[in-house]
Each structure stands twice: as structure tokens, then as C-alpha cells.
């Protein structure tokens, strides 16, 4: 799996939010030692970004009070 560069370029949402969401997802994957990491040659950030930009996962912003 390669980092989804084409989908990243075409992304119309807030790229900062997407980057933060991918970072959080990468942390989740690493902490749970997800088996998909090995399938992705150990590239956890690329896996998280691929999941995010392929809409395999969704994120939402939690508003400050």
C-alpha cells in the first residue's frame, strides 16, 4: 500500500483536521498492534491515511465548550 497521494490532493475538506485524524488513527493502530500494519510493511501512518481518505473510517470534530 502506498500513501494515497492522489486522494490527498483531491481532498476538499480541512486538511489539518484530516491530518490530525490520521495521526490519531495511526496511534490507535500502533497501540492495538493491528495485524494490517504488517500487511502494509509496517507503515502505520500510510495505513491510517489510506483508511481515512478511502473513507474506511470516519472522524468528527469535538467542539470546545
Verbal overview:
It is a single chain. The chain has 65 residues and is mainly alpha-helical. It has one domain. Helix content is 58%, strand content 0%. The protein has four helices and no strands. The protein has helices spanning 5-10, 15-32, 36-39, 44-53. The longest helix is centred in the middle third of the chain and has 18 residues, at 15-32. The model has no long low-confidence stretch (mean pLDDT 87).
Key terms for this structure?
single chain, 65 residues, mainly alpha, 4 helices, 0% strand
Helix-strand layout with pairing:
Elements: H1 5-10, H2 15-32, H3 36-39, H4 44-53
Helix pairs in contact: 2-4
Secondary-structure content class: mainly alpha
Biggest β-sheet description: none
The count of helical stretches stands at: 4
What share of residues are in beta strands? under 5%
Distance between the termini: 39 Å
- How many structural units, i.e. domains? 1
Amino acid at each position: 500500500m502506498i500513501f494515497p497521494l492522489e486522494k490527498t490532493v483531491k481532498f476538499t475538506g480541512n486538511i489539518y483536521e484530516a491530518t490530525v485524524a490520521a495521526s490519531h488513527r495511526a496511534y490507535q493502530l500502533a497501540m492495538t498492534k493491528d495485524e494490517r500494519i504488517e500487511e502494509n510493511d509496517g507503515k502505520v501512518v500510510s495505513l491510517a491515511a489510506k483508511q481515512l481518505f478511502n473513507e474506511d473510517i470516519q472522524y468528527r470534530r469535538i467542539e470546545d465548550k
